[in-house]
Specification:
six-stranded mixed β-sheet, 7 helices, 16 strands, alpha/beta
Length: 274
Amino acid sequence: MTAVAVLQMTAGIDPAANADTLERAIAEAAAGGAAMLFTPEMSGLIDRDKARAAAHLTSEEHDPVLARVRAAAAAHGLWVHLGSLAVRRGDGRLANRGYVIDDRGEVRARYDKMHLFDVDLPSGESWRESASYAPGEQAVVVDTPVGRLGLAICYDMRFPALFAALTEAGATILSVPAAFTRPTGAAHWHVLLRARAIEAGVNLIAAAQTGEHQDGRATYGHSLVVGPWGEVMLDMGDAAGLGFATVDMAQVDAVRQRLPAIRHRRAIPPVVRA
């Protein structure tokens, strides 16, 4: 059994204030005995005012939130999955990029969100991630103290082929940091995440944004830790804060022996129209 910590936060328009929250969470997670901390999508900045946000968007090498999280991880000897930051790529576009940082503050893995959320919701909300962000082109797994971790971000959860590829690459735990909208969260958050854990026979950790943000948007919360049989081991509701859970890597093997669906996967041939 290994302890993990999950940060549920209400990120705002000031990266320095968000970095303060992240640093406190790293210290508290380490003090609480966690082997690794998981944070939400867009942990460094949530601001849909493009002109205002532009002043804070920079390359990875110059991102102050990333630098502070790396320093805090090293200071407290804690692995961190920094769910994602908005960073400028070399071509001038943005990446929604997650980082796995080890207990020395070194970046062990990067993952750019592959599936971009473009939608008009009945609530009147409109999202166009592809207007600013470039999609990622690589699926990523990385060895961590809590198992071989497969990386995804938010909207990726709706595309099971990505998770199949991660488990075929040896993932025994999945991380799905998110900033989920409330209407879709209420309808789909729990069922999709539990499905991804069940079909892969893995532990799954989904750190989420929550509450009313300074830029006017609202996010669903309910950060989850789900076991390989689909059991919810932590649901943080809608309050910001730090939660703890334990994951059992041996249980992954037990579940996969009991229900060996991964071994039964077959390549799907072309569909025949009868």
